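hey so u asked for the seq, here:
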Amino acid sequence: MKSIHLAGIILFLFASIYATGNEPAVNDGKAVINMTKSDFLTKVMDYEKNPATWVFKGDKPCVIDFYADWCGPCRITSPILEELAQEYKGKINVYKVDVDVEKELSQVFGITGIPAFLYCPMEGKPTMTSGIARDKDQTKEMFRNYIETILLKK
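ran it, C-alpha cells below
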C-alpha cells in the first residue's frame, strides 16, 4: 500500500516538473508574476471568447512586460519593474510574459520588438508601449508616469 502511495507522489512530482504550456502563474516570492497564456485568458482578457472586444478580467489594473531572457534592455527593466511592483503593491499587478515561450500572446498583440509593455486599466482600452529610456532612473520614471496616468488615472 505504501509503495502505491509513494509511486503516486513521484508521478505527480514528475508531471509537475515536466508539464508544459499551461503552468499557473509563478512569482517565486517576487512581486512580478510570470504569466502563461491560460493565466492571461483568466486574469487579463479572454481574446478567444471576445476576439473583437476588449473585456478586462483583472481585479486590479496591470502592466504586462513582454520580454526574453536574451534581451539586454529586458534585463535592465526586470529589477525596475520588481521595485515598482513592490511600491504599487495592492494597487496594480505586474506580470511578465516570456515571448519565446508564449509565442501566441506575442502574435495576438503584434509584438515585433522587445521589451514591450501592455498597460491595462480597469476601464477603457489598454495601451502598448515599447523600449526603455536612456538610463535606469529615466526608465523607472517613465514606468511610474505610465502607471500613474494610464493605470491609476492620476
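Residues 1-27 have pLDDT under 50 and may be disordered. The radius of gyration is 17 Å.
lmk if thats what u needed
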